[in-house]
Amino acid sequence: MKKLFIFKLMIIAMAVTTLISCDDDDECYYVEQNDARGLIVNASPNSGDLYFFADENKINGNALNYANAQGYYRFYDGMRTFTVRDNNGNILDTEQREVNGGDVFSLFAVNNFDQLELVSFEDHLEVPGFYRAGIRLINLSPGAPNVDIYLDGHLITSNIPFKTASPFVNVEDNEYNVEIKDTQTGNTLFQKSSVVFYPNRIYTLYTKGFVDAPSGSNDNFSLEIIRNY
């Protein structure tokens, strides 16, 4: 009995020292809490297959397609050079950042393919508590105006420019109608119903696609959801 009790304690300790990230309905990944950890996301419309590198080390073995995310991945400490490359190995953009143990961040490929760039955001993953979920909005839609997010008609965060993230905000765990609106005009740019935010979970919502899609493109303005924890 004593050994069984100790084993249960070990399982609980492992559970509270891990983080999780996944696309809305995709496979999830767990990592240890004291590692530096990074999530990679392809938010660049018409970009095709992308590969992310830390220095010369390939991060994703399989190509990352538009609107997909992978991670969290472990990274060793130090000044790291992150690059994103196309199928032919051509470097499309570079970002340098200091990586320290315990860091948690997301690295996005954004903008249209001809102007593709890397941007990163710190993931401050403080557990929101019982009956609450943490959410933030990142505006990653090329050419989009500043945007607001509404849940069931209530303003949650406002005036988010392109390539900018809102702070994480705690909301009640519930099912919501989510609206993204143009800050200046109040026009609804995108709406999605029956979005469920579960208790004690943390989410990143990011806009993608074009408000005015170029001829021949189906990458219209929409919203993607990543569960960070």
TrEMBL record:
Recorded superkingdom: Bacteria
Protein name, please?
DUF4397 domain-containing protein
**Keyword Membrane among UniProt keywords:** no
Tell me which UniProt keywords the record has, alphabetically: Signal
Signal peptide per UniProt: 1-15
UniProt KW Signal keyword: yes
Q: Where is the DUF4397 domain?
A: 40-150
Organism expressing this protein natively: Epilithonimonas hungarica
